[in-house]
Design goal:
This protein is an alpha+beta fold. 21% of the residues lie in helices and 24% in strands. The chain has a 4-stranded mixed sheet. The longest helix is centred in the N-terminal third of the chain and has 22 residues. The C terminus is likely disordered.
Amino acid sequence: MTPVQAPGADAQQSAAECHIWSLPPVPRPASWFGLLDTTELTRCSSFAHERDLARFVTGRLLAKTALASLVGTDPEAIGFRTRCPDCGGPHGKPHVVGDGAGWELSISHSGDLVAVAVALGSPLGLDVERVEPWTGPALPPEYELVLTPAERAAVEALPVQRRARGCLTYWTRKEAVLKATGEGLNTPMTDFTLSGPDDPPALLGWHPARPARPVPALADVRLDDDYHGAVAVLGVSDVHPTVHRGTELFPRHHLIRRHPATRAAPARAPASPAPTTIRFVNSLSSYGS
């Protein structure tokens, strides 16, 4: 089965440059509230756990600082607009406004890592997941909701010790696709088939086949031995990710000092019930970061 082509693929941009930065969640996230707008501060009040707050703030801090370094402006001049396509709430895929308008953005987090990917003019999706050991005789059960029959066969053809990593390769590539299209996990991962975990990443087909469905370019991303990542970009035939150290964006002391424009978040709202999902619950929260 060969990769499908997007409609008008011969007219689309041949390749996209994608830049990726990552950081662990910052300590004392409230010290960075000065970089957040009113909507982002309201989001901060909804987190029941400090760790979730730190991930959200780190994603915004990293994204605004990275874009500012590319545009040649201050992080305070970078803004994001978020609107859920389903409920209209202030969550979902961030869109860049302000001095960074024209750049596309995706934020992901898992475990102790927050990552941001940006590209100029090309919608994209980034997913990172922490590698979870799996020693069971069968595949991890959550992959019943991820793998098509062809993908499952490809994983089962791998040596037993490599199957969990093969599953995770499919997971990150698939979530990157759905974040790039803006669908998130509202679209089942079994609605499309990808190339095998040992093959160059490519989308082989949507199910059922529909000519109008986008066909993003895909690339695997290596951030850390304990994490696996992938990026998907729309409207191009190839993507070239460049991975940077997140700490390069900041002076050595900058991540631990108090931001001079610190503001308080609105009063914390009652915590919402935790969503019921499969084991990689990070994926749902990272889509709306």
